[in-house]
Design goal:
With about 350 residues, this protein is α/β, with parallel strands linked by helices. It contains 8 helices and 20 strands. It folds into 2 domains: about 1-45, no CATH class; about 50-290 and about 330-350, Aldolase class I (TIM Barrel), CATH 3.20.20.70. About 50% of the residues are buried.
Length: about 350
């Protein structure tokens, strides 16, 4: 158990969690909707501090982050639980877990940072389940990583209250925020959350932090893939986050409580990408489908291919050491090094700590 932040006491021994808009109220011995924050003797605690559902070295492109240290390895891990209730969750075995045995690996923040350094990882990603629910652990790990020159990365739905939002993202160097749809009814009925909060988080990241931001939308047939919804969403991104914000449209596969929905056709991803680019977004990608054109990074000015990809492998690299297009000199927005990494598409499970 680890003392939690962002809560206050109520009457009769109850406590209210103020980390996310769920504002769970818990009697002694009860857990919140996320399952990992609990009332123990009138104090809010994080039950998963120091425990993980597993560690794996991935390509950074898998997060997905296409403009943040391309080709480099990232040490990825998560815990258990989630503060959303997405019916289509693609990681439900972890995020919806109510079994503490899911978290078989124990590791301190310093052990995680040292393992990442020893394995040559340029970053550590909090992923698989939403890291905002284990904020205290994530922030301590992020600080330990930065001490060793390793970048903390958040893969998150962005469902967090304003005060903890500041602390959480101050500890991150990059984030991919999952914008699950663009209507309040979809968020409320399918995800158990509020779209307005996620939009506030996105605007906060763009306007008040230096975090490198990319956005992902999983397109689900018949749920959030209508042309008018994609049109409104991409126009909003251009207006509020800027035309250089990378956007990833990814394909849904039947899972968890949406087994009755078909897979997303590649044509849907292609249509969404074309619409987004027509609305002014310069860097729009497709994922969870084999689409080499939809995975290329192209110069926004002269349309030269700067980075070619085949799934998670880099197949072409034309950026100059200064991060510019060799043809016209236009800067490609992102966090690039002089040369790309060569990790490729490998996935390497690792043990950390005891």
């Amino acid at each position: 158990m680890h003392a939690a932040r962002y809560w206050h006491k109520l009457s009769n021994g109850r406590v209210q969690c103020d980390l996310c808009p769920n504002h769970c109220r818990m009697a002694d011995g009860q857990r919140g909707a996320c399952f990992v924050r609990a009332n123990e003797g009138g104090e809010l605690v994080l039950t998963t501090y120091g425990r993980s559902s597993g560690f794996c070295i991935d390509p950074i492109e898998k997060k997905p982050l296409f403009h943040f240290l391309p080709g480099t390895p990232v040490l990825s891990f998560g815990t258990a639980g989630c503060n959303l209730t997405c019916r289509f969750c693609q990681n439900w075995a972890i995020s919806k877990s109510r079994e503490m045995d899911t978290m078989a690996d124990a590791a301190t923040p310093d052990e995680i940072a040292r393992k990442a350094e020893a394995m040559g990882c340029r970053s550590v990603a909090f992923t698989y389940n939403d890291p905002v629910i284990f904020l205290e652990y994530a922030v301590d790990i992020a600080n330990a990583c930065r001490d060793r020159g390793i970048h903390p990365v958040a893969v998150t739905a962005g469902y967090i209250c304003p005060e903890p939002r500041v602390e959480f993202f101050a500890a991150m160097d990059a984030a991919n925020v999952d914008l699950k749809g663009f209507t309040e009814p979809f968020y409320e009925k399918v995800c158990g959350a509020k779209l307005s909060t996620i939009l506030e988080t996105l605007v906060y990241l763009r306007e008040q932090t230096s975090v490198w931001l990319e956005v992902t939308t999983l397109l689900i047939p018949g749920e959030n893939d209508r042309t008018e919804e994609i049109d409104r969403m991409t126009r909003w991104i251009v207006d509020h986050l800027g035309p250089d914000t990378p956007l990833h449209f990814t394909a849904f596969h039947p899972d968890y409580k949406m087994l009755d929905h078909p897979r997303t056709p590649v044509a849907t991803l292609t249509r969404a990408r074309a619409l987004a680019m027509n609305n002014g977004l310069n860097f729009v990608y497709t994922g969870n489908a084999h689409d080499r054109v939809g995975q290329q990074t192209v110069c926004a000015n002269c349309q030269q291919v700067l980075i070619g990809r085949d799934w998670f492998d880099l197949t072409e690299w034309k950026l100059t050491p200064e991060g510019t297009c060799p043809g016209c000199g236009m800067v490609c927005p992102g966090r690039f090094e002089a040369t790309p990494g060569d990790w490729g598409s490998r996935r390497l499970p690792v043990r950390v700590g005891g």
